[in-house]
Amino acid sequence: MKIQLTPRYLFGFFCLAAIMGISHELAHHVACFIICGDWGYKTFNSFSLCEGCEEAHPDTFWLATLAGPVLFNYIPMWIGFLKMRSGSTSNKLFGVSLVFSTIPIMRIVFSLMGANDEPYMIRLFFGDSTAAFWLMNVAIWLLTIPPLWLAWKTIHNQPKIWIYLFYLLGLPIFVFLFVGIFLENLIVKYHILSDTLWGMPYLILLAEVLAYMGYYTHKKYLYSV
Fold first, then answer.
1. Model pTM?
2. Which of 114, 129, 125 is CA-nearest to residue 63?
3. How far apart are CA 164 and CA 161, in angstroms?
4. Rounded to an integer, what distance in angstroms lies between the CA atom of residue 216 and that of residue 16?
5. Is residue 46 very low, low, confident or very high in pLDDT (cuts 50, 70, 90)?
6. Left if phi > 0, otherwise alpha if psi is -120 to 50, otherwise beta: which for 199?
7. For residue 225, pLDDT beyond 80
8. 104 neighbors 129 (Cβ within 8 angstroms)
9. Residue 195 DSSP one-character state
10. Of 70, 130, 209, 215, whose CB neighbour count within 10 A is largest?
11. Do 137 and 116 form a contact (C-beta atoms < 8 A)?
12. pLDDT band per the 50, 70, 90 thresholds, residue 1
């Protein structure tokens, strides 16, 4: 399958990636509300439990941390894997797009650095256990490498390395700079649309609405080779 990075495809792909990223934090946020009965606070990059949640629900508060990567990283990644295994070229394109929209390289790299949800869970249950840390990383590799490898085999552009590097590294760099620094600073540093509704700054709500609108108006281009 040869992928054409047209402007319409790229816009739809970016909107899909935005939905995955925002929904990752939203999953944390909603799980916190379900467990604790009150809203915490979330930005583009992070979330915090409502006051007293950890003390009131010591046996279940960690589920809020687990919800993000499970629901909006690993499950979509493997749905993309199954899409790529189908005979339909359009499904394969969407499968590649879905896998990379979850930004799997960030699960790998940041977990190695101890900075993701997964290392937090390990420290919570096992302290500073080196064995548990490396078993966690092996589990992440087992979850991420098969979809990444199948994406490599599915892409037939020549030379495919540039298309693959765009998905693997180009999108994460753009997300880090645009979302992780620029948009995050609009809220945290410059307090633009930083007032909250249900514990979420208005800027995040606006970004999510725009992402869904962009995705649904450009979804067909994610299936068009």
1. 0.94
2. 125
3. 5
4. 9
5. confident
6. left
7. no
8. no
9. -
10. 215
11. no
12. confident
Angle made by CA atoms 176, 219, 97, in degrees to the nearest 5: 50
Task: Please tell me the distance from the alpha carbon of residue 213 to that of residue 191, in angstroms, as a whole number.
Answer: 25
Residues 156 and 141: their CA atoms lie apart, in Å, by 24
Spatial distance between the Cα atoms of 158 and 48, rounded to a whole number of angstroms? 45
Contacts of 165 (CB under 8 A, 6+ apart): none
Please state whether the peptide bond connecting residue 159 to the residue before it is cis, i.e. omega within 30 degrees of 0.
yes
Tell me the three state secondary structure of residue 14. helix
- Alpha-carbon Rg of the chain, whole angstroms? 18
Q: Helix, strand or coil for residue 102?
A: coil
Q: How far apart are CA 84 and CA 101, in angstroms?
A: 14
Residue type, 166: F
Alpha-carbon dihedral sign for residues 64, 206, 167, 177: negative
Tokens coding 30: 């909603």
Question: Of the candidates 72, 46, 48, 45, which has an alpha carbon nearest to the alpha carbon of residue 182?
Answer: 45
Q: Is 76 helix (H, G, I), strand (E, B) or coil?
A: helix
Question: Could you please report the per-residue DSSP string of 134-175?
Answer: HHHHHHHHHHHHHHHHHHHHH---SSHHHHHHIIIIIHHHHH
60: tokens are: 């279940």
